[in-house]
Structures are given as structure tokens and as C-alpha cells.
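pinned: reference chain
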Amino acid sequence: MLRITDNVALQDWELTESFIRSSGPGGQNVNKVSSAVELRFEAATSPSLAPPVKTRLKRLAGRRWTNEGALVLQCDETRSQARNRDIIRERLADLIRSALTPPKRRIATRPTLGSKKRRLKAKKVRGEVKTLRGKVDPD
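pinned: its C-alpha cells
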């Protein structure tokens, strides 16, 4: 079980880990040992997350979200398979934590009187500059 917050935890059946050969550090060891971790989280079918959280998670995940509704993360930063596994689980937890917080609603504000006057004055000055560029009347 992967605990995200006090009231959100992911069950083991929702996570699938596979180990692949890494392209990261390790020298010749890279060709022999599968130290990179690919974590697959079945987010669309997860009972642990509410539907609004799932939509925010999909937006945050971007390309890492598959057509089947799974979130796929990869890590090959270290030589250690166990360390890569810990890193990728922490990344998943951070991503879900950021999706759990709803975005702040924007409060519509009106422009101040001073800003309106400054805008109109700038428009007037710009218009005068443009009129001065015109042909000069010979009279």
C-alpha cells in the first residue's frame, strides 16, 4: 500500500512495477542489470481517487497518461533498483498530492479609475503622434 495523505492510500493492485534495462549511470553493468523502474498506476479505475482529482491528475500527467487511463512513470537515475523504485513512488505521490489540491477560483476585479484614465490618455497621445505623421497641408 502506498500512502499519499492521511485519507488517501493506493492499494497494491493499482500499481504495477516492471524493471527494464537502464540507459543511465552504471558503465558495463547497465547491459546486464535491469535497474530502471517503470511504474504503471491504473488511475482511471482507481477507487481511491475522486473523479475531479482524476481529471486534474490527467491534466498534470500530460504525455504520461495513456489512452487506457493509466499513468506511466519511469526512473533510471541511480544504479540501484531499490532506490529507483523509491524515487518513482515518491514522484507518483507528489503528483497525486498536487492533484488533490483544487485550484483557487479567480475573483473578478474591476480596473481602477486611475488605470482607465491612464489608458485613455496613452491612446490619445498615440493618436496625436499618428496624426502628426500625415501629409503637411501647404496652405
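why pinned: The CA atoms of residues 77 and 83 lie 9 Å apart. Residues 81-100 form the longest helix (20 residues).
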